[in-house]
Design brief:
By secondary structure, the chain is mostly helical. It has five helices and no strands. The protein has a single domain, classed as DNA polymerase, domain 1 (Orthogonal Bundle), CATH 1.10.150.250. Helix 1 packs parallel to helix 3 and helix 3 packs across helix 5.
Length: about 80
């Protein structure tokens, strides 16, 4: 149920973000752990522009976003 909500929440105002998340969920949705779901939830709380900067590696996660689970999921998102 949480995974289905995440897919819905990943629909963003920026097409670039939508495309990245669509590819990510197509590849990884079935294998997401609870830690992955938590990390994605925290990433999706960011504004569209901040999220895009992280996804496109214009910025690196700082502060509470430098959590190992977030960094790992962000790496998967960047790889799709």
């Amino acid at each position: 149920m949480r995974r289905a909500r995440l897919r819905w929440r990943s629909r963003r105002g920026l097409l670039e973000n939508d495309l990245i998340f669509e590819r990510f969920f197509s590849r990884y949705e079935e294998s997401l752990s609870d830690a992955d779901v938590g990390a994605l939830t925290r990433l999706l709380e960011l504004s569209d522009n901040d999220l895009m900067d992280l996804l496109l590696a214009r910025k690196e996660p700082e502060g509470d976003l430098s959590d190992p689970d977030i960094v790992r999921v962000l790496g998967l998102l960047r790889a799709v």
